[in-house]
């Protein structure tokens, strides 16, 4: 429950309030991504992704262990996923883009789970047909990021039950109701699909007999806390995890972009005029109330949604981003000008993404596990 703006809730099914990512590290018991681990990653991969450098991915579990494994034994694999409750928005792409980068750097296999069962259980109005259809739509956006079918496989839970259910059974036998209650706060009227579901989300962690690395939005961490607890009990290595921030809503830094919140979202299929309208009309501005004041005092990039979208995702170039930051802070760059730059960046990205989507539609079957 939220009483004032210092309280927040982050669970796989609810993200609310003013998220304090530092507090979350303590609450969840994860580790901060330190400079020393970034240096180590850079030594191994020869590069460092801007989302890591800028702290968009800020927390982890056992990242050192997966690097140890890689250096001593070789390949691991990567697993991430999406709950197909609606169309893809640009916030969903954050962990997928990092997944792509990690796959290239380490040369490893990727599994992508589409949990249509989960969204059917979790959302009152969802039907199995609607979640299955969204699974296919979401898969198109994933493929459009450039994944290749020879080392990338997509699992739709109801369709690939034969691949996942036997693993899920082994996991489910080691989890009892009080574990689940403690982690998710379920009550007597929670449907039993939800109670079993965490075993399905854990299953792909053990689909190959190698350690796994999971890039995800930090709201998904509770599932894998359970997975990590039971891994030794079924003779497996605990999954390593790398946690990202959630992209904020258009309307402000304290809410996450979410299909269920009106005016909060930019979809991957939005056309240029829609993006322009959404940014101009809804993107919360850190600028001053009039031009004179703005020139005098400057804007505040840390609460400015246009700036944050550039920082988190749409402006990979550090020098350009720094100039925007400094010009905005000094008052040289106006809020309207910053918005125009952001609209252009988003539309450039979406125009090529939308072309890649068209190609992806034809190839989708190549990624599906038979
Ligand atoms: N539960 C996730 C969601 O609601 C989807 C998901 C399934 C997932 N498997 C995953 C996310 C693995 C991250 C990693 O979006």
Summarize the structure.
The protein has 370 residues and is of the alpha/beta class. It is built from 16 helices and eleven strands. Helices cover 49% and strands 14% of the residues.
Keywords:
370 residues, alpha/beta, binds tryptophan
Structure description:
There is one protein chain. This protein is 49% helix and 14% strand. The protein has helices at residues 21-28, 35-45, 50-53, 63-72, 93-106, 116-122, 128-144, 161-172, 177-184, 192-202, 221-230, 272-282, 291-297, 305-314, 318-330, 335-363, and strands at residues 8-11, 14-17, 31-32, 57-61, 77-82, 109-114, 152-156, 212-217, 240-244, 248-249, 252-256. It has a seven-stranded mixed β-sheet with strand order 3-4-9-8-5-6-7, sandwiched between helices. A two-stranded antiparallel ribbon has the order 1-2. The chain has a two-stranded antiparallel sheet with strand order 10-11. Strand 1 and strand 2 form a beta hairpin. Helix 8 (161-172) packs across helix 10 (192-202), helix 10 crosses helix 11 and helix 12 (272-282) packs antiparallel against helix 16 (335-363). The longest helix is centred in the C-terminal third of the chain and has 29 residues, at 335-363. It is globular and about 65 Å long. The N and C termini lie far apart (44 Å). Residues 12, 80-83, 113, 115, 118, 201, 214, 216, 220 line the site of tryptophan (TRP).
